[in-house]
Amino acid sequence: MILIVTLVFFSGLGMVYFGLSQRRPILIVTAHPDDECMFFSPVILSLLKWDIPVDLLCLSSGNYYGSGRIRCDELRRSVNILGIRHHRLICDKQLPDNPRKVWPPERVQKYISKAVRKWHSKTVISFDTSGVSGHLNHCQIYSALTKMPLGISEVFVYCLKTYDSLLKYCTPFIVLLAFCLERKYVFCVPLSGTLTPHKAMLQHQSQLLWFRYLYMVFASYMYINVLFPLKRSENVQF
After folding, report:
1. Of 141, 171, 150, nearest to 30 (Cα)?
2. Residue 150: which of 234, 88, 222, 79 has the closest Cα?
3. From 12, 77, 169, 193, which residue has the greatest number of CB atoms within 10 Å?
4. Is the pTM of this model over 0.85?
5. Which cellular components does GO assign to this protein (predicted)?
6. What pLDDT was estimated at residue 10?
7. Which CATH number fits domain 2-228: 1.10.1040.10, 3.10.310.30, 3.40.50.10320, 3.40.1190.20?
8. 70: which DSSP letter?
9. Can you say whether residue 58 is alpha, beta or left, with left for phi > 0 and alpha for psi between -120 and 50 degrees?
10. Are 50 and 12 in contact, with CB atoms under 8 Å apart?
């Protein structure tokens, strides 16, 4: 009941404060196939509800266990279900799916800059310094974004807030925190699309171990996203 009330109350609230009334394209930057639905579904679906184009840049094929080709196909199906306009998946040996390999920030920056220019993105959304799950590849996207040269390109960056491990699975408590403290950048899955993140996640069959089903039911990131702006003295130059 709390979840339903929250979805109704917050649905679209972030749009008012987020400055997205001009409906300019938004770029979501992820590290692996399935990140888009595991972590960013609420903001993606909220933006699309308001007719704001959403594009996706995924910086690796998720080939850590040798299933990169399969995961490329899974990502394509997930993107179609979520309604993402364009997507690009990067296969670069310098950006491997590996929690122990450091990604060169200039490589990450290069692909983000290309996507921003190609799709005329005005806002970039990605992970924060903790990367939600703590995966090194997630964290390095944030690091690369903070090191982008400064300029006046009018491209703004927002980061997905990471919560404590226990809080991640206490959706009602996250809802209360968001309502009381962080309303400006809260995005909930629209009520009409409550199960869409789950449908998208089910396309990633190669990743559906037993604990992923628990994640789909209980993880707050399947229902609500809280973003915060990347603090820079100027906009990020792309």
Report:
1. 141
2. 234
3. 193
4. yes
5. endoplasmic reticulum; membrane
6. 54
7. 3.40.50.10320
8. H
9. beta
10. yes
